Amino acid sequence: MGTPLGPIVITYISFFLTLIICMQVLDKFIKGYFQVNIAILACAFLFSVLYKILISNFSDQSHLYFYEFIKNIDFQMLLIKYLLSYMLFAGSLLCDLKAIRQQKWSIFSLAFLGTVSSTAIVGIITYLILHAFGINTAITYCLLFGAFISPTDPIAVLDMLKFLNAPKKLREIIAGESLFNDGVAIVIFITLLNIVNKEISTVTSVTILFIQSSFGGLFFGFILGWIAIQLMNLGHKENEIDILLTLWITTTGYWLANHLQVSGPLAMVVSGIYIGNYITQTRKKALCTFWSTIDHVLNAILFFLIGFEFILYDFNSMNYLIPIILLIVCLFSRFISVLISLNLFKIKPRILKNEQIIIMFGGLKGGLTIALSFLIPASPEDFIFKITAYFLVVFSIIVQGLTIKPLMHALDYTHSEK
After folding, report:
1. How confident is the model at residue 3 (pLDDT cuts 50, 70, 90)?
2. What dotted CATH number matches 75-410?
């Protein structure tokens, strides 16, 4: 008989949790040099490489049980029904509506127009590139790819802004965009996913689904947030009731939203924003600490999972070349979508050219991009999209995260108004 799966999984989980705890303990030392997400991603990648080296020296086949376990996970159910709600709520809880109100038009344009234009640009160019390489894929698959690489990660962005001590204006715009474009991208992604799965086929059906999903999600999220605040005000043990109620929202509330056929992701974003802006700063600080930890752990899990799939895959030169080309396409689309969003209309207050460059460079990707990449239906090109997502997250968090401070110095923007 083969090695039992239980002890193997427990061993890996124990090692993984130990690594996470050590990183949290070292957090105060890490922050002085680089953002926490950089450390998490680096550790996940290094552990994946170490795993690849170690299994080549195993005398038994125990590692295959773990690999088969990973391969047999239903990522669509795990992510859409469970993890996604926690990740979105964690990011939206940090939103300060009063702080971003002055930049509302810039944020609105970046979150909506920017996300839609980025999805279209990436989707169309990806379609042309794949066909040039002889990969005949439908345009809807390419647009799906464009939708899941478009959102920026709120936790990664806020970690970066804290590390940089960025000027107030930039903090408001970049943080606001990252908090709202997640919900927009997910609505676009799920709508396209329904088209790919042939659950909807007409323009009218698409329009009705989009309106019902988005506006229904916004309204339901507001109701969830309002109920939570009323119940929080009745509780005596503040921290305990706050955590329990927010966990209830991200589990039962998310399930109810999907059952009512409204956007669960948008409901999580709105409820998180509502709660984060209607509790006291003391309670918000404790709640944000809890949810930031949850988000870091979930991001680490996703980085490890995609890392295993990346390392254990048998690559050839074509598998490297296409993702690298698509990575350049994604960076180009970010550049164009920011230009369109901030210059197509006369937005006030005016965003300067050097500020626009920093906004382009500050759109860090994170766990949400990787999470959505697992939801693409099986196809010959799905692994290319997953690896491109991984490349993009690695590049944005490590390369952009480490070079944005020198960029701000080069643009002489570090002495702007705080």
Report:
1. very low
2. 1.20.1530.20
Burial level of 259, CB count in 10 A (0-12/13-18/19+)?
Answer: exposed
Task: Give tens-digit pLDDT for 351-392.
Answer: 888 888 888 888 888 777 877 887 888 777 788 888 888 888
Q: Is residue 283 a contact partner of residue 239, using CB atoms and an 8 Å limit?
A: yes
Q: For residues 274 and 279, give the distance between their C-alpha atoms in angstroms, rounded to a whole number.
A: 9
Residue 376: DSSP 8-state: S
* Entry pTM: 0.78
Residues 190 and 375 sit within 8 Å (Cβ to Cβ): no
Dist CA 160 CA 35 (whole Å): 6
What are the residue ranges spanned by the domains of the chain?
A: 75-410
From the CB of residue 368, how many other CB atoms can be counted at a distance below 10 Å? 32
pLDDT tens digits, 87-122 = 888 878 877 777 777 788 888 888 899 999 999 999
- Amino acid identity of residue 386, one-letter, is K
Cis status, amide bond into 349, omega within 30 of 0: yes
Q: Which two tokens stand for residue 196?
A: 């790919």
Residue 377's φ and ψ, nearest 5 degrees, are: -60, 150
